[in-house]
Amino acid sequence: MSSWRESDFRERDRPNPRRWIGRGVGLWTFLSLLLLLNEQRRDGVRCGQDCYGEYRTYEAGHAWTNYPDSWQWDAQNILMTVAFLCSVAAAVHLLVNRRRRAVILTFVSLGLSAIFVAWVQLSPPVGQS
């Protein structure tokens, strides 16, 4: 270690305190991709053999999760797709050194994903009346 007399008073070895931003944006982009892929798998199945109108006799008045053509399935899919696209846009903004926009888009994506997860968790189970 050199003494203060030999120093030029520059902090060369100090790590960049903002490096966590890039790591966080990248991690969230990956996690939102996993959420989107899970939603695509879930949307492909929808209610399966528990659907009214396909395998079972159509009956009105049941939960929306029992009908394959309910608008809620499509709305959930669109919501998660928009959340993923926001995270990808955040990653692109990070690559062009626009950290503020990247952070804002990441938080927008986090919010949309939280709404999606809450909606899915609060949805009635498939096959239940």
TL;DR of this structure?
This protein has helices at residues 19-45, 71-95, 99-122. With 129 residues, the chain is an all-alpha fold. The longest helix has 27 residues, at 19-45.
What does this entry look like structurally?
This protein is mostly helical. It has 3 helices and no strands. It has helices at residues 19-45, 71-95, 99-122.
Give the arrangement of secondary structure elements.
Elements: H1 19-45, H2 71-95, H3 99-122
Name a few traits of the molecule.
129 residues; mainly alpha; 3 helices; rod-shaped
User: Structural class, from helix and strand content?
Assistant: mainly alpha
What is the number of helical segments per DSSP (H or I, 4+ residues)? 3
Radius of gyration: 23 Å
Summarize the biggest pleated sheet: none
Strand tally, please?
Answer: 0
Inertia-based shape: rod-shaped
List the secondary-structure elements in sequence, H or E: HHH
What are the segments in which pLDDT stays under 50 over at least 5 consecutive residues? Answer: none
| Strand content range | under 5%
Overall pLDDT, averaged? 86
Distance between the termini: 73 Å
Helix content: 55-70%
